[in-house]
Amino acid sequence: MSEIRVAGGQGFYGDTPSAVDALLAEGVDYLCLEALAELTLAILQKDRQKDETRGFTRDLPAYLARALPFVVDGRTKVITNAGGINPTAAAHAAVETARALGISGIKIATVVGDDVLGRLDDLHTQHGQAFTHNDTGAAFSELPGPALFASAYLGARPIADALAQGADIVITGRVADASLFLAPLAYEHAWAWDDWDRLAAGILVGHLLECSGQSLGGNYSGDWWALPHPWDLPYPIATVDADGTAVISKPAGAGGRVSTDTLRHQLLYEVHDPRRYLSPDVVADFTSAHFEDLPDDRVRITDVKGTPATDTYKLLLATHAGWASEARVAFSWPDAYEKAKATAAILVKRVEMAGHDVDEWLVEYWGVDALGGPTAHAGADPACEPPECVLRVAWRCADQRTAALVGRELVPLTLSAPPAGMTGAGGRGGGPTELLSIWPTLIDKKLVDAEVRVVLEEVS
Amino acid sequence: MKLQLREICGYRAGDKGDIANVAIFADDDETYALIVREVTADRVKELFGTMVKGRVDRYEAPNVRALNFVMQGALGGGGPRSLRADSLGKTLGGALVRLHIDAPDALASRRRARPDVRWADEILDAS
């Protein structure tokens, strides 16, 4: 094929499935659904702990229900990492969704092998995997507790293999976000896996599309107020030639904007060194890309350069890190900030008196510096008094019960705290939440790839 | 002349573990040269103070007139572990463009427009 059209139909677990309708109507060869963030894996781990048949993003059936009529007609294929930490269960849900719609004759592929939890110790002790913390340099022996999940960030190749086997829908676990988009481009254009510049072009396209609306005006710091129809932001499409030239566009409709400015915001999102964007498939140089604004909300991207991929995959581990809860109290002028601070101190003291052990307190003053921290005071007039202040106190305890008891110490302050407090008190609904520490590290690709499989099932 | 970065730069923040990155974007070559000169990693580290526990590294992306600041230990332990309301550091872009820098007077005319949300009033008044 001379041109391949790929679309970014989902940017996170919780995104809106309705956004894919416009992409499907526009006509795309591949609808890619990116469902996983570091935080998502943590959420899915908690799901799987409660029920072993879970651990994938549960909005997958809602997406597939919209896409399947197009898939069964051969108009589009779907690629998603919605499998999370349980891709086999996700594939089962996909098959059930197709059957419920009376759809048959399609092939669903599952990519497994990214989950190395079961052989983590063996990989460390027998296969020389140091599993040093990427950011802190801490040794694996300092991992704070048993790993709850261990997911390697796979690349595009197993997805391309699944497509070569005739898959109409490919469901994976932890495949790197941008690789979901590179896979169909590399497969359709028959790019070699050492054609670094083209692979880099595909990864850059994937990076621009992986966060759905965020490349077309979502979270945009330019003239965000002037974007048309911001309540109906479209999601992005890339039309990619065999030489790697890409044109980013949006489906027909009123909302959103495609410009070099909206795209460059996404280009550096969650990026460290832009000259060396590490993907499993290639090291892409994002500073090599040339952006050209075209008429009608289109941007052409050319000249992307890449260098050989590294020998390792990123591996993400997580461990239990205690229980957290929080409470919020609103205070009015005058002296709103001082009242808030005093109330936080009174709570800390009362909890101490009650004998509850708190491992960490965090006190925030919303409306003062909760978000900006020290930066909020840069150049500010110290005499300026906030008209209102919301106190947010969060705490971490070793066990769930203590985390809940701490919050109860706030209730008596309704009548026993600085004046006019306890207005609009609230916090996390549903009691304490479990915290997870994550441990990013590296793993030898060969040791992972040896266990990566594509499982193909035809829906009959 | 003193300028605040918000007047001449766009911004976006992202997270990876306990690391936050904030990219800032200039609109033209003169502004880009100015921020390359003025907005050093040290100044950003100083601005964030106790909020950023570790190192701040700066990377340049001249093709899109951007600087990218990578801040270690910036998210209270990382998204799933952090007690912060903004555990993913989404607002740190806005925090960075609070910085004041020295700028040539000629750049005064390049100031970005401030928001106009009269359309929001219309929707809310009609609701």
Describe the protein's architecture and organization.
The complex is a heterodimer of chains A (460) and B (127). Chain A has 460 residues and is α+β, with helices and mostly antiparallel strands. Chain A has two domains: 3-114 and 153-310, no CATH class; 319-437, ACT domain (Alpha-Beta Plaits). Helices cover 27% and strands 26% of the residues of chain A. Chain A is built from twelve helices and 19 strands. Chain A has helices at 20-26, 38-50, 60-72, 87-100, 120-125, 157-164, 179-188, 196-209, 260-267, 336-354, 400-408, 445-449; strands at 3-10, 30-33, 77-80, 107-112, 147-152, 169-172, 237-241, 246-249, 277-278, 283-285, 290-294, 298-302, 305-307, 312-332, 360-366, 388-397, 423-426, 433-444, 453-458. Chain A has a ten-stranded mixed beta sheet, with helices on both faces. In chain A, strands 5, 14, 15, 16, 17 and 18 form a six-stranded antiparallel beta sheet that branches. A three-stranded antiparallel beta sheet of chain A has the order 9-10-13, covered by helices on one side. In chain A, helix 1 links the parallel strand 1 and strand 2 (30-33). In chain A, helix 3 packs across helix 4 (87-100). The longest helix of chain A has 19 residues, at 336-354. The model of chain A has no long low-confidence stretch (mean pLDDT 94). Chain B has 127 residues and is of the alpha+beta class. Chain B has one domain (2-126). Chain B is built from four helices and six strands, in the order E-E-E-H-H-E-E-H-E-H. Chain B has a four-stranded antiparallel beta sheet with strand order 2-3-5-4. Chain B has a two-stranded antiparallel ribbon with strand order 1-6. In chain B, strand 4 (56-61) and strand 5 form a beta hairpin. The longest helix of chain B has 10 residues, at 29-38. Chain B starts with a strand and ends with a helix. The chains are: A alpha+beta (460), B alpha+beta (127). At the A-B interface, helix 2, helix 9, strand 14, strand 15 and strand 16 of A face strand 2, strand 3, strand 4, strand 5 and helix 3 of B.
